[in-house]
């Protein structure tokens, strides 16, 4: 079975439909599937619901899909860096479902593990708990959160072998594994695809069973906040 | 003299014990890292890292290595990386000993509000709700009053909550308060701050 596709456009071919739910990896602009997002923009698919921790910035990442109004609803924990997002949200064009960051990650993980719901104490007594079932264990209240079952997952990894085994790099791992797990079909873009046998099986972060399509490409990897220290301080 | 930002951070660092895994929020809490001294403290960054190092030298920034504030950082010899589900698993699971974070309001019962002001732009709670619900101990570091001079230590929070009854200790420019049965207890006063000043600047019940 060949999982390798020649381009991000080709890797998405036949998978897209209007109104679908997409889970996307990344934290801020770190480890985002930038090539697949560009391909989604090009495809013109619309009315998307996107589960992603953040919404990119105006001209990079998911911000591009917002600019073209292809997203109907975001499920995120933090959307502070995107002016166009705020404009669409405040004008009612865009729906927003805030999720606590850990709840969002666990909802994806749970979906990928076939778990439709789980109880968490995160958000108890806050607006996040509104309308959700509450259950008490040992004197502590927990709220019911639902697993996310996405139509497709778009993620970014560092290396893959041709069977789809993935290795991530540093904090660019973030939401990519849980996002990958919760989609019916997962498309991963990577910096390098190597032949099977080239990666140490003990060092695989996400087994290829979760990864259906692969594309290799060049990544811009934009830095959101460049913070440094001067050498003299060392 | 009430404490300044650095003195508040230094006082918060006194809360940390050797061997602790700790999550620091943005603002004054970030400064706490400068005052841990010889204590063996491992900083968690909730985007998926234990053992957060300082900012990189110029020219050594790595786009794949950022903290939860999206700033470029470095790794240490003890560093480990993991995904967001595992990161919040260790937070929700109570493995992180303490979180030190800022606040807009804290109530006498430990309610915390620090994520949204109705009518203003809402950016989201990020990982704050998970952290305050999950970690062993929640320590708030903030100015005692807002820029209008109103107390931020209240009988009841007026803003939407981040967590209910979650705060253990409050460190402000005026001193240190603990959330206890029935209200707040003065643990310590900043140098030159009187109990009267602390009481008159605090709307929450001091027991």
Feature tags:
heterodimer, A: 234 residues, alpha/beta, nine-stranded mixed sheet, three-stranded antiparallel sheet, 6 helices, globular, B: 207 residues, three-stranded mixed sheet, 17% helix
Produce a short descriptive summary.
Chain A is an alpha/beta fold and 234 residues long. Chain A has helices spanning 8-12, 34-43, 62-67, 83-90, 101-112, 176-181, and strands at 4-5, 21-24, 48-51, 71-76, 95-98, 117-120, 134-137, 140-146, 150-161, 166-167, 183-194, 213-216. Chain A is globular and about 50 Å long.
Give the percentage of residues in beta strands of chain A: 25-35%
- Low-confidence runs of at least 5 consecutive residues of chain B: none
* Rg from Cα of chain B: 17 Å
User: Could you tell me the mean pLDDT of chain B?
Assistant: 96
Number of strands of chain B: 12
Helix content class of chain B? 10-25%
Number of continuous helical runs of chain B = 5
In one word, what is the shape of chain B? globular
Biggest sheet architecture of chain A: 9 strands, mixed
Overall mean pLDDT score of chain A?
96
- The residue fraction in helices of chain A comes out at 10-25%
What string gives the helices and strands of chain A in order?
Answer: EHEHEHEHEHEEEEEHEE
Strand content of chain B: 25-35%
What's the N-to-C terminus distance of chain B?
A: 24 Å
What does this protein structure show overall?
The complex is a heterodimer of chains A (234) and B (207). Chain A is α/β, with parallel strands linked by helices and 234 residues long. Chain A contains six helices and twelve strands. Chain A has helices at 8-12, 34-43, 62-67, 83-90, 101-112, 176-181, and strands at residues 4-5, 21-24, 48-51, 71-76, 95-98, 117-120, 134-137, 140-146, 150-161, 166-167, 183-194, 213-216. Chain A starts with a strand and ends in an 18-residue tail after the last strand. The mean pLDDT of chain B is 96. Chain B has five helices and twelve strands. Chain B is 17% helix and 25% strand. Chain B starts with a helix and ends in a 7-residue tail after the last helix. By secondary structure, chain B is α/β, with parallel strands linked by helices. In chain B, helix 3 (84-92) runs parallel beside helix 4 (128-134). Chain B has a nine-stranded mixed beta sheet. In chain B, strands 7-6-9 form a three-stranded mixed beta sheet, with no helix packed on it.
